[in-house]
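Example record for the data management plan.
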Amino acid sequence: MAPRRTRQWTSKIEFAIQLDYLLSRLGDFRWRPSYAFLVPKRGGHIFLTTTLATEQDEQRRWKLQPRWAQWKLHDRLVEREFLAPEQERVREAESLRQVIGFAAKQVSYYQVLFERLGIAAADIHGPDDLPALPVLTRADVQEQKLALRARRLPEGHQVRVVAKTSGSTGQPVEVLHTGPSARMFHVLKQRQMRWARLDPSGRIGMIRPPQDLPKKPDGQRLGEGETYRLDSWTPQVGPYFQTGPMVGFSTRNSLDSQMDWLEKQQLDYLIGQSAELEHLALGFQDRQPLRGLKSVLAITQQMTPEMQQRIERSFDAMVHENYGFNEIGIVATRCREGGRYHVNTEHCLVEIVDDEGRPCPAGQRGHLLATTLTNLAMPLLRYDSGDLAEAVEGPCPCGRSLPAFGAIHGRYRRIANLPPETFEHWAALRRALGDMPAELSRHLRQYQVHQYRDGRYELRLVVAGTLAAAFTERVEAEWAETGAPSPPPLTIVVVDEIPRPPGGKFQDFTSDFAIPRATEGGEPS
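Corresponding structural encoding:
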């Protein structure tokens, strides 16, 4: 017999399909369901394929602020999600030619580069011609930050934001953003929320480091135990849309305090860093699921399938993601139907390339390069994000036609020096922890794996009680089956806390072989 929850979801799906069919026969599309129904499966849920009409209905639920009432940008974005591939390529080419032409005239870095390469701006006809240009690295931006700035900007493109992030040496990368470029954060964040079927009248909460939360009216950071309250979803989409309230809480508070806070707030939606959300999910193994929580938005960190599964299981709510970094902005929005990251081509272009800068075939992992289309203050062409992602091809099951890439495999420089089979071993531990029965993992709160230079691994655990012996036995059994004739030594230790790097982002895997990590941009906040 199927579990009760599965029977309930199945019944709801059957009802939705029948209702959708009957209403379509009646021809009254005004009352058709504008939200997606979900089917649970191992590791997540499946959305039903969407259509342009469905997304237009969904967009109408979002009411613009009076001063923006005549703004049609969001409607155009909805239409663009379903363009025929050849139409999409034409639009990409037009936008790219404008940026290339501007850079060749107003940015000295590209003037010198084009002259050295012996090419003209007119030689770049579209995205397929981008490999004619070299990859732009973080070091290039650090060293050439003045030469990369435009001498003169068109009307309406004044500099509004200076995005900063640190490199491995701590030297910051600074990128100027214009008003149109900065505005795309709010525009594209709403796209994610629409895809996730968030109700804009709902109550949303953020649990984030204090430096990532809005300041209090007196200009001070949010202190321990304090709640930040706003009447709208600011700084997310509040500047443009009429929304419900938003509240915030600092990750400096203890995990128990964060869980108590969540139970009191009665949120519809929760925003947090991926690792922090998993820690909360581990804590809620000992508590009842949050009543009314409908969706979780994970930001700034890679979300592994095991993390997603744990969060969705503990919260009984869907997890949704964007992908981006401060130098560019929100690069892609992930659909749950196909699990792909659809590129926000109104804002940027993406290439997945090999070590030589050549396009990767479908299924191959490569470097993710991004080219800005809206930021003329400091246009970055073929900028190396530092991340590895999987190339994909063919239509996506979600029904949207925006170009896409597949799974993100993390920062290249963090894994470039790791010994062979490192990730096979790490994956074995992730599986063991992800598949751990709730009765064995109920006291687990945090975990981290460290790889020593002599080949040893250490699994560090923060617990809120005594772990059963069966917990260790399951981990060791999974470790022994990693495929190696003799797996490297593994030690399991319980610690009081797991230190964080200077940037504050929790790391669940560290290695003596990895290049030291400093604060980096994730999704802009």
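Summary line stored alongside the record: The first strand starts at residue 38 and ends at 41.
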